[in-house]
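Design job #97: recover the sequence.
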């Protein structure tokens, strides 16, 4: 695994202590599913990250291309959140609010960062499905770049109203759970500035337009 089993167990114990909203079994299940089949200690590790607002089509893109990336660990904050026991219970009770969303998102984000920290420490190739807009993600990319990772970002652009319509369709009519509309509106104005920020640290950015049928609009490659 790249570290002694005893070290890994000590590491997971710290995760148990920090992410105390979850059971040990729940945390173990997330680790097992994400670490299955990955290669450790790559000489030139790679990190791929999605970027965009909810409703842009990031997860659809992520799930469609996963098959082409062998030996990668696939990490998705949304997938972790949707598989949390607390999230499932709220969904079954048809009880979802802005506060409930924040609670579940905070737990999934915390666990995502712990899993990612372990993957990066062991030079695993990672494909990370997240929004990529907040300061934590930006600092994370800078940190990973300094560790010698080759970094690629897939930015999915979409009109705000189209994204909101998709979220309403997917999360309300199809019972997918709650996502605050104000977060989509806020994130819409942050996408292009985030792309410009990441240009400083990454090796490649693919910019896709997904208003109708997704297509590659522009590619930036570090000189």
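Job complete. Output follows.
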């Amino acid at each position: 695994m790249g570290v002694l089993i005893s070290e890994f167990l000590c590491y997971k114990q710290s995760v148990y202590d920090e992410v105390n909203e979850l059971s040990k079994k729940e945390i173990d299940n997330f680790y097992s599913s994400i670490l299955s089949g990955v290669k450790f200690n790559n000489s030139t590790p790679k990190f791929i990250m999605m970027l965009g607002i909810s409703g842009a089509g990031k997860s659809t893109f992520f799930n469609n291309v996963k098959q082409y990336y062998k030996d990668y660990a696939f990490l998705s904050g949304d997938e972790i959140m949707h598989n949390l026991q607390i999230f499932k219970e709220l969904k079954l009770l048809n009880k979802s609010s802005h506060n409930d969303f924040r609670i579940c998102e905070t737990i999934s984000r915390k666990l995502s960062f712990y899993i990612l920290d372990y993957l990066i420490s062991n030079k695993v190739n990672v494909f990370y499905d997240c929004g990529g807009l907040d300061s934590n993600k930006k600092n994370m990319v800078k940190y990973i770049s300094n560790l010698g990772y080759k970094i690629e970002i897939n930015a999915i652009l979409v009109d705000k109203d189209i994204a909101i319509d998709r979220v309403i369709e997917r999360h309300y009519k199809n019972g997918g759970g709650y996502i605050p509309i104000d977060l989509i509106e806020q994130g819409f104005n942050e996408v292009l500035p985030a792309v410009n920020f990441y240009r400083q640290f990454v090796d490649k950015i693919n910019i896709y337009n997904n208003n109708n049928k997704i297509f590659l609009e522009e590619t930036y490659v570090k000189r």
